[in-house]
Design goal:
Layout: H1 3-33, H2 37-44, H3 51-69, H4 73-83, H5 87-109, E1 117-120, H6 122-134, E2 149-153, H7 155-189, H8 193-224, H9 232-242, H10 244-281
Antiparallel strand pairs: 1-2
Helix pairs in contact: 1-7, 1-8, 1-10, 2-5, 3-4, 3-9, 5-6, 7-8, 8-9, 8-10
Length: 298
C-alpha cells in the first residue's frame, strides 16, 4: 500500500473514530446508566434534600391534598413542605423513584405490553400520612391511602420508548467498540503513526468537548420546554443529577485526549533533539580529524 493511500485510509478511520466517541459515550450512558434501577435510585436520592425539589414536591402534593380532602391549599402545602424535611420523605422519595423506574423498565422489556405504565400511589401516601399523624397535623387521619394506580408513562409513548431503548441498548455496546477499533486501525495503517496518535487524541478531546456542549444545550432546551417556570430549578437539579456521569465522561475524554496529544508532541520534540545531537556528534566523511585535546598546534 502506497504512503498516500495509507495516509488517506488512516485519516478516514480516525475521523470516523472521533465521530463515534461522543455518540458511543452518549449511547452507553443511556443504555447502562439510566436503565439501572439501583443506580437511578442512588443518583436521585440526594435530590430529596435539594430545596428546589422539595418545594416542587410540596406544591404538587399540597395541591393534591387540598383537592382531595378540601382543606386550605396554603395549609396543605405547608404541611407537605414540613414533611419534605423529614427522614420519612426521603424514604418515600426513594421508594417512589424505585417503583416508577422499575415499572418503566419492566414495561420496556415486555414487548407484548401495550397499556399505560403505572405505580401504586400508596407507596408515597402511606409514609406521608404516617408522618403527618405523628406530628399531630390536623386532618392527617383523613388523608386517604388508596392502592390507586398512577400513570407514569402513557400508552401512546410506550411503543416509541421501547423501540428507542432497544436501539440504545445495542448502540451502547457496539458504538464504543467501533470507535476503539476504528481508532486502532487508523493508527495501525498510518504512514506516520506518531501523527496518527496525535490526531486521534485531539479528535477524542474534540469529541469530549462536543459532548459537554451537547449536555449543556440539552439542559437549556429541557428547561425552556417546561410549562411552569416555577419548577425550573427542580428540573435543573434533576437534569444535572442524571447527566453527572455524562459530564464527567466528557471531561475525561477532553483531558485524556489533550494529555495524550501533549505527551506525543513532547516525545516527538525530544526525539528530534536527540537525532540532531547524534548527527552533530558524527564526523562528516572526508573531513580532517579533530585535534587532540592538550596538543599544541605546530
Amino acid at each position: 500500500m502506497s504512503p498516500r493511500l495509507r495516509t488517506a485510509s488512516s485519516a478516514v478511520l480516525i475521523a470516523l473514530a472521533c465521530l463515534l466517541v461522543p455518540l458511543g459515550t452518549l449511547a452507553a450512558w443511556a443504555a447502562y446508566d439510566l436503565t439501572d434501577t439501583d443506580r437511578y435510585v442512588t443518583t436521585m436520592a440526594p435530590l430529596a434534600a435539594d430545596p428546589a425539589v422539595r418545594d416542587a414536591v410540596a406544591d404538587t402534593v399540597g395541591d393534591g391534598i387540598a383537592q382531595e380532602i378540601g382543606v386550605n391549599r396554603v395549609f396543605a402545602e405547608d404541611a407537605a413542605r414540613s414533611f419534605t424535611a423529614t427522614p420519612a420523605f426521603r424514604a418515600a422519595w426513594d421508594a417512589g423513584n424505585q417503583a416508577a423506574h422499575a415499572a418503566v423498565m419492566t414495561a420496556l422489556h415486555d414487548d407484548d405490553r401495550a397499556g399505560p405504565v403505572t405505580v401504586d400511589l400508596a407507596t408515597v401516601t402511606t409514609p406521608l400520612k404516617r408522618r403527618l399523624t405523628e406530628d399531630h397535623a390536623p386532618f392527617a387521619a383523613r388523608l386517604p391511602v388508596e392502592h390507586r394506580p398512577v400513570a407514569v408513562l402513557p400508552p401512546g409513548e410506550l411503543a416509541a420508548l421501547r423501540k428507542g431503548y432497544h436501539v440504545l441498548h445495542t448502540a451502547g455496546f457496539w458504538l464504543p467498540l467501533a470507535a476503539v477499533l476504528c481508532g486502532a486501525a487508523g493508527i495501525a495503517v498510518a504512514a506516520c503513526r506518531r501523527r496518527a496518535v496525535t490526531a486521534t487524541a485531539l479528535g477524542t478531546a474534540l469529541g469530549g468537548a462536543f459532548l459537554g456542549l451537547a449536555v449543556a444545550v440539552g439542559r437549556r432546551l429541557t428547561l425552556d420546554d417546561l410549562r411552569d417556570p416555577a419548577h425550573r430549578p427542580a428540573a435543573a437539579a434533576v437534569y444535572d443529577a442524571l447527566t453527572a456521569t455524562l459530564r464527567t465522561a466528557s471531561w475525561l475524554l477532553l483531558v485524556l485526549g489533550l494529555t495524550v496529544a501533549a505527551v506525543t508532541w513532547l516525545t516527538r520534540r525530544a526525539s528530534l533533539r536527540g537525532r540532531r545531537r547524534r548527527a552533530s556528534a558524527t564526523p562528516v566523511p572526508g573531513s580532517p580529524p579533530a585535534p587532540e585535546p592538550g596538543r599544541a598546534r605546530a
